[in-house]
Amino acid sequence: MNVSLALPWTLDQTIDHFLKVGTDVLLTATRDNVQPIAILACEKFGATLAICPTTRSKIEQLLHSQSGNVVVSFLKTKIGYPKGDSATQLAKTLAGVNFLALAAALVSTTDTFEAGTALENMIAASAIDKTFAPTAHHLKDLLNVLEPRLNRAGFMDEVLNWKAWWLGSNGFSESERAHIHQYGEAFPSSNGLEKIVMALRAACRIGQATSVTLTARSAAPWLTAFVI
After folding, report:
1. Strand, coil or helix: what is 47?
2. Tell me, what's the pLDDT at 69?
3. Whose CB among 5, 143, 152, 155 lies 3.0–4.6 Å from 108's, allowing a Cys bridge?
4. How confident is the model over 33-73, as pLDDT tens digits?
5. Per-residue confidence (pLDDT) for residue 38, from 0 to 100
6. Which of 75, 90, 77 is nearest to 39 (CA)?
7. Closest among 226, 207, 212, 216 to 162, alpha carbons compared
8. How does DSSP classify residue 84?
9. Taking a C-beta distance cutoff of 8 angstroms, is the pair 196, 50 a contact?
């Protein structure tokens, strides 16, 4: 997989960018009751993520399918997702779509605060200037807004499919197979999530690396779905 990644970025440049083109972001943040810096920092962070084209395409198609509203005549109302929300704003750029792909895996398998904590650490680690880094609470609020839309990406379905694959594979003892059967829907801790994402980022940034070795037991189905 060939993925070009940006170098570590500075949050002060993110603020300058916001002052120039931040009207849409400010309106979106106000509508969704989230912090504008959370949207902008996540988009910048997305530029450093190693996301395959197939996954990006799946996220874009998902959001496109959610763009319309259904009119309920007898209620005299429309049902659907609001136009210009945070997901729509992030989907305007490749970096934003990359972040949405990561967020889809996070919100599908863990609570938004734990996911926000992992993102806080990852964003701070990838930014040169951490002065304006969003907090875990700011990121949790953004993930809460994104969760209803991204849950439909079906990441947990992928986890269950890979769980079945692991259970049907040869080369495992009965005790190992029983362990996956009972605990195979487990997911990494916030610290584990951070290390997995950072390892994949580093491998693609190096350029010449062709593989990354990741060790897991209970979380093997989750890790396989996340990486593949």
Report:
1. coil
2. 59
3. 155
4. 999 889 999 998 998 888 888 999 999 999 888 776 555 55
5. 92
6. 90
7. 226
8. T
9. no
What tokens appear for 27 in the block?
């309106």
Closest by CA position to 207, among listed 17, 50, 12: 50
Under 8 Å between Cβ of 195 and 202: no
Q: How far apart are the first and last CA of the chain?
A: 11
Residue scoring higher pLDDT (228 or 209): 228
pTM for this entry: 0.81
Q: Which one-letter amino acid corresponds to residue 209? A: A
From 153, 195, 197, 162, select the one nearest 56 (Cα to Cα): 153
- What is the residue whose two structure tokens read 């996220």? 59
Give the integer Cα–Cα distance in Å for 63 and 81. 10
DSSP string, 132-161: TPPPHHHHHHHHHHHHHHHGGG-HHHHHHH
Amino acid, res. 149: R
